[in-house]
Design goal:
Layout lengths: L1 H15 L2 H23 L11 H32 L2 H5 L5 H30 L7 H25 L3 H17 L12 H7 L3 H14 L6 H25 L6
Helix pairs in contact: 1-5, 2-3, 2-5, 3-5, 3-6, 3-7, 3-9, 5-6, 5-10, 6-9, 6-10, 9-10
């Protein structure tokens, strides 16, 4: 386990050393969303009975911060290693592909959790945000950040330069995030858009995570948990196969 622990430590240290950029900056960006929506929509929108819109919004923003930073951590790490050439030292080590995979994923989960926890703690200063079912919230935040960490590995392996990575994030990750119910409940949408929302795996992450706070969700949390778990298994299997094949890494 020495190699795995060393790689994990290296990945944790990589984002911790620049915490102002990797932790504090995303927290500020997410809180700006909250500030804007609080001033513009607080008095005009009610989603759940007796739940202010801003309080409804907080779990979605926390989860959005978690998954976006989990993706950013693994994707930026792998493409930086490819461009600088130091990926060869990882590939030539006796580490298994699963050990490499789990080291990157755990580091991504750690960064996502740090940013999300920071956002949540700051919001508690100004709002009373209930956390009725913390185990459910914890399950979804771990699974969601793991999925985005694996997707970050896929994007980093596929991309040859930073603008390709940015395209992956801007045209895939951001639309799926913003259309997942972060800022609204899907029941407020027309039927056709509700159907499209149910095809978005990010919707199940957000809805299940919000269930942990309010005990209310758009669909059954068990269904959301099953779909998110299946997505994690499929994406993880595909990512490990990419690492094993050496696609755009060894060749």
């Amino acid at each position: 386990m020495t190699g795995f622990i060393t790689l994990l430590y290296k990945e944790l240290l990589r984002f911790w050393k620049v915490g102002f950029q990797t932790i504090l900056a995303p927290m500020v960006s997410t809180l700006l969303y909250l500030l804007i929506f609080f001033h513009v929509l607080e008095a005009h929108v009610e989603v759940y009975p007796n739940v202010p819109y801003t309080v409804f919004l907080i779990p979605g923003l926390v989860m959005m911060a978690v998954i976006q930073n989990a993706f950013a951590n693994s994707s930026s790490s792998i493409i930086q290693s490819k461009i600088s050439g130091n990926i060869v030292f990882i590939l030539l080590s006796p580490l298994s592909y699963r050990a490499i995979f789990f080291a990157y994923i755990l580091a991504s989960i750690a960064r996502g959790l740090l940013v999300g926890l920071g956002v949540y703690l700051v919001t508690l200063i100004f709002f009373e945000v209930p956390l009725q079912l913390p185990i459910w919230a914890f399950l979804f935040v771990i699974l969601g950040s793991a999925i985005l960490g694996a997707m970050g590995l896929i994007a980093g392996i596929w991309a040859d330069k930073f603008d390709q990575l940015a395209a992956f994030q801007n045209f895939i990750i951001l639309p799926l995030t913003f259309l997942s119910g972060v800022f609204y409940t899907v029941h407020s949408l027309p039927v056709s858009w509700q159907v499209l929302s149910h095809l978005n795996p990010f919707f199940y992450m957000i809805d299940g995570f919000r269930y942990g706070f309010f005990g209310v969700s758009d669909i059954s949390p068990y269904v959301s948990l099953g779909i998110v778990a299946i997505c994690l298994i499929l994406i993880s299997t595909f990512t490990i196969r990419l690492l094993r094949s050496g696609y755009k890494l060894r060749h």
